[in-house]
Amino acid sequence: MARDSSSKKRVDAKIVIVGSSGAGKTALMERFVYSKFTQVRVQTIGATYVSKEVFRGKESIHLSIWDTAGTERYRSMMKQYYRNAKGAIICYDITDKHSWDALRSWATEIRGNEPDCRLFICGTKKDIVDEGYAPPGVHSDCVKFYAEGLQAPSIVSSSKTGENVDALFSMVADELWEEVHQKPLKKDVVSLDKPVRRNCCYSA
Description:
This protein is 31% helix and 27% strand. The chain is α/β, with parallel strands linked by helices.
């Protein structure tokens, strides 16, 4: 059934996805927006922009999602993408301790540039551990302890299977909705998602 656009309200929110190179940022974004997974991909240069609209009742939340490069050579230009970000998803590969160690510097950098930006921690590549191809590189208790200190929700996902990807972005949307309205969201509200459009900026 068609939605009555005249009665709909809209909330705009810029979201950045950051983390080390190879941490699964692009795969996470593509799984959420396009429901697809690509095994082999080229490295992101600068940042790639996509958008998706999610609904909370008659109100829409327009997520402008920026998938950023994780290599050191582009680190100096990342600050421009943090500007006015309402939320940041910091990714780490759960099989790679180095990507977890780097997560702390990403969190510090974002908080230093956008103090009011909401942080969300996302462990990626859960399928690799579940299928026995590699052991976890960081203990879950360590992640939980750090996330609580940062006051950042954390989740472990798989872009390959789609596990917890929609749950992550739903959590982001819910928190941003609550921040705008300064009241808890009714959790029985059904969320309906649809992709909007894709515009690339500095993408390979």
